[in-house]
Design goal:
Layout: E1 5-10, H1 15-28, E2 32-36, H2 44-50, H3 54-59, E3 61-63, H4 66-69, E4 73-79, E5 90-91, H5 93-105, E6 109-114, H6 123-126, E7 131-133, H7 146-162, H8 167-174, H9 188-204, H10 216-227, H11 231-262
């Protein structure tokens, strides 16, 4: 399980935090580290703070966007320290470990996304996640160092991986719907293409005004991510959208011809 867990740090400012996060990961047996457009470099301070986990720093991947960082992942969970205007599926660190175990058991990679030291993840970044995880800290002193947050979640990943369960419980944990599923969950990149296609289709049929979108796409994104579409389901949905777009084009062409005839 642990080799399918990806730790993603976004715009990290302090190199020491990158090193400390790598140490926390190695403590728990998690090895995949991805940095999204880091402000800090992996310097001597990072290596010192890694304290024996330099190989995680050596093998870490640096990308320019969150989409690149979570590409290929069937489950993306973002850390969030506060409530949002539009509520998103929320889990505890313990529940996060269970969800990750279920996802990996169904042949999916998992990304745990951590935001900036000063302000966490943006709403747009959180909307790319299937769910959010909140660490229930002391409300009078709730600010966690990013490496400490990584430690907490990596610990829960390890505990889920080490849990000894009966074959029956293991089967239920591995299969969210109580049966062996026939297709893998759609990876993040497929879902992003689906959301782009959905938005274009809604514009084509006049349901979505791109000038005043309000929260329509955000709420649709939440709905579809909550259902955890598999690859076949995404393919079917995109086929439906393509058919809708073809019908919309025919209808628009007819309307244009009618208008030309009136003139």
């Amino acid at each position: 399980m642990l080799d399918q867990i990806r730790i993603v740090l976004v715009n990290t400012t302090h190199s020491g935090n990158i090193g400390a996060a790598a140490r926390a990961m190695k403590n728990m047996g998690v090895t995949q580290l991805v940095l999204v457009d880091p402000i800090a470099e992996i310097d001597g301070d990072a290596i010192v703070r890694a304290s024996g986990a330099a190989e995680i720093l050596d093998s870490c991947i640096i990308v320019s966007s969150l989409d690149e960082a979570v590409a290929g992942c069937g489950l993306v969970i973002g850390t969030s320290a506060r409530g949002r205007h539009i509520p998103w599926p929320l889990c505890t660190p313990r529940e996060c470990g269970t969800k990750a175990k279920q996802a990996v058991a169904n042949s999916n990679s998992v990304a745990l996304v951590f935001g900036r030291e000063s302000r966490g993840l943006t709403n747009e970044e959180l909307h790319k996640c299937n769910a959010h995880v909140h660490i229930p800290t002391n409300p009078d002193f709730s600010s966690l160092n990013i490496a400490a947050a990584v430690q907490v979640l990596c610990y829960e990943m390890r505990m889920s991986a080490l849990e000894g369960e009966s074959a029956e419980v293991e089967q239920k944990s591995a299969n969210s719907w109580g049966v062996e599923w026939d297709y893998e969950m759609a990876p993040h990149s497929d879902m992003e293409r689906f959301f782009d296609h959905l938005k274009d289709s809604l514009v084509d049929i006049g349901f979505l005004d791109p000038n005043t979108p309000k929260q329509l796409m955000t709420r649709l994104r939440r709905m579809f991510q909550r259902t955890a579409l598999d690859k076949m389901e995404v393919s079917m949905m995109r086929g439906i959208l393509a058919a809708v777009q073809r019908k919309a084009k025919v209808a628009n062409d007819v309307d244009k011809n009618n208008e030309s005839g009136k003139k």
